[in-house]
Design goal:
Blueprint lengths: L9 H13 L15 H4 L4 E7 L5 E10 L4 E10 L5 E3 L9 E5 L5 E6 L12 E6 L6 E2 L6 E7 L5 E7 L26 E2 L3 E2 L5 E7 L4 E4 L7 E6 L6 E5 L12 E5 L8 E2 L3
Antiparallel strand pairs: 1-2, 2-3, 3-4, 5-6, 6-7, 7-8, 9-10, 10-13, 11-12, 13-14, 15-16, 16-17, 17-18
Length: 272
């Protein structure tokens, strides 16, 4: 993830956590008190990524829990009515996780990010999936190359603004047992970040996905990272955050930029 934006969802996540705990339907009978131990850590549930439905009657969010037997944590998508009377778990595939659930503008679909299998792409890449609220299994959004870091629906629901990490040029289809580690080459000032490891020349870039054609095209150029896309209310522009200084690794000069979804023009800088 682009540095400087790791806190962007903590505040709403904490607010949603407090609301769910206050109105939980599972607090009818308090368990016997005991000293907090290591086993209790595995029972902690972490709520995050809240997203309000267009009608304001439902909230989609993730619940992260620990599978002690598998020695692994996983997060799944849930949906709760605004009055707290109904709780629906939308995803539950074993040994797989989902994140960033968001409603389509018409409220009929929920998109989420997951590296689950079945997308036709490499399982280690995070892909975008669509889930129909009427029911059925989620289906992957095909035609997107690169790991999905962030996304936002267009106001009319016909397109998506995506932040995609460049595909790994050294990725191999060989089995894990057959893979040989390659030398780590670093030629930049910032060599690694939490969650990503060593940094190469792969970047987080702004793309536009069109549902009608099933294709994605890149909206920006240059060797920069982009983040936090947002649509103009009328769909005429996309605003994003980027550090486009001479050497972004040595500073934090991030600013807002505006670009047309039709492409063909350099982004317009909005802040200084």
């Amino acid at each position: 993830m682009t540095k400087g934006f790791s806190l962007r969802r903590r505040a709403p996540a904490m607010l949603l956590t407090c609301a769910l705990l206050a109105g939980s339907a599972y607090a009818a009978e308090a368990p016997a008190r005991h000293a907090f131990g290591v086993d209790d850590l595995a029972r902690i549930r972490t709520v995050g990524s809240p997203a309000l439905a267009p009608g304001g009657d439902w909230v989609a969010y993730t619940v992260r829990a620990t599978d002690v037997a598998a020695d692994k944590a996983a997060s799944h998508v849930w949906m709760t009515s605004w009055d707290g009377s109904r709780h629906v778990q939308l995803t539950s595939r074993d040994k797989e996780s989902e994140s960033l659930p968001r409603f389509s503008p018409d409220g009929t679909r929920i998109a989420f990010v997951s590296s689950r299998s079945g997308s036709g792409e490499k399982p280690e890449e995070s892909r975008l999936w669509l889930l129909d609220r009427a029911g059925g299994e989620a289906r992957p959004v095909l035609g997107v190359k690169g790991s999905v870091d962030d996304y936002v629906w267009s106001p009319d629901g016909k397109q998506l603004a995506l932040i995609l990490m460049d595909p790994d040029p050294d990725a191999s289809d060989a089995k894990d047992d057959d893979k040989k580690p390659k030398p780590i080459v670093v030629d930049r000032f910032q060599i690694k970040t939490d969650g990503e490891g060593y940094l190469g020349n792969r970047r987080h870039r702004l793309w536009l996905y069109d549902f009608a054609s099933g294709t994605a095209r890149r909206l920006t150029s240059g060797d920069f990272d982009e983040a936090l896309p947002a649509w103009a209310p009328d769909g005429s522009a996309i605003v994003f955050v980027s550090d486009r200084s001479t050497d972004p690794d040595r500073g934090y000069d991030s600013n807002l930029y505006r670009v047309s979804p039709t492409g063909g023009a350099e982004p317009q800088r909005l802040t200084s």
